[in-house]
Amino acid sequence: MEGTWPRAVSAPPSRRQSPAAVAAEESTMPHAIDITGPITAEGARVLTPEALQFVGELEARFGPVRTELLEQRKRRDAEIAAGASYGLLAETEAVRRGSWKVATTPADLQRRHVEITGPTDRKML
């Protein structure tokens, strides 16, 4: 199915539900996903109404917290870029100042080469 879905898409209720349950669910289904780009047959197989409803529910449940965490990350990145310390825990100072070592790099990881096994694109050259 080629085309564009420029509207909000909500998952339809399950066919196994009673008409009363369907009506109740439709009236309380606020979770919609906007698909503004082209949708291919492969995309339609993945972006089922159920999948879109699930993503909408995840965003409704966790979106505000996710957004706040991203804002905190931006603020912290700006602070560190401006010279603030990383604020490492005082109780881990002994570990940082200790004389510990990690194992040496295994021989098979010391000389790594990239192996291109597929067709090349001009942008990859």
Labels describing this entry:
125 residues; disordered N terminus; flat; two-stranded antiparallel sheet
Protein model, in words:
The chain has about 120 residues and is mostly helical. Helices cover about 45% and strands about 5% of the residues. The chain has helices at about 20-25, 40-45, 50-80, 95, 105-110; strands at about 10, 35. Strands 1-2 form a two-stranded antiparallel sheet. The longest helix is centred in the middle third of the chain and has 33 residues, at about 50-80. The protein is flat and about 55 Å long.
Query: Would you count the extended β strands for me?
Result: 2
Helicity level: 40-55%
Largest sheet: 2 strands, antiparallel
User: Which residue ranges are poorly predicted, with pLDDT under 50 across at least 5 consecutive positions?
Assistant: 1-29
Distance between the termini: 34 Å
SSE ordering:
EHEHHHH
Question: What is the global morphology?
Answer: flat
Structural class: mainly alpha
Percentage of residues in strands: under 5%
Number of domains: 1
Mean pLDDT reading: 78
How many separate helices? 5
Strand order of the largest sheet: 1-2
What is the CA-based Rg, rounded? 25 Å
